[in-house]
Amino acid sequence: MKKQVGVWIDTEKAVIISLDEVEHRTNVQRSLPGERLGKSPKIPNKACKIISFPIQTKLRLPGDTKEFARFGNQHYSTEIKNMHKLKNVKHQYFKNILQGIKDVDELVLFGPSLIKKEFEAQMTKYPHIHSRLLSVESADVMTDKQMVRWVENYFKTFANKLSLQS
Known about the structure:
two-stranded antiparallel ribbon
């Protein structure tokens, strides 16, 4: 039987939903002090993995008082440093998600933000995973049960489309 997986992805967390496994929940969580983490989904008979990795899109480094730092006659913009830091955080986030989906047969990405497109672009570096990606869909913010229903409905309609083409 094929291992069908849906990944709901946002800038705060990714939920990996596998339809073919028994109940198994794993939390891989990383947060900054004082930040609130999402709850583990309460989904019976489904395998879920939550990767919580809040990405701060507007970084402010401690000690930054202006848009630039001044060194004599030179000006040093902190914008480039912030862009590199954001790029490294996203890369680590994507790497954690890729670890969770490395042995899937069929995959669908969905979620509310544009980070799913960035993740798809990152996946092209891994052709054995990218070749199993069926589509990237837009979806609204959902509860845990709504995510599972969405993945189940997607694979049912996908199977119906395949059977009609045959």
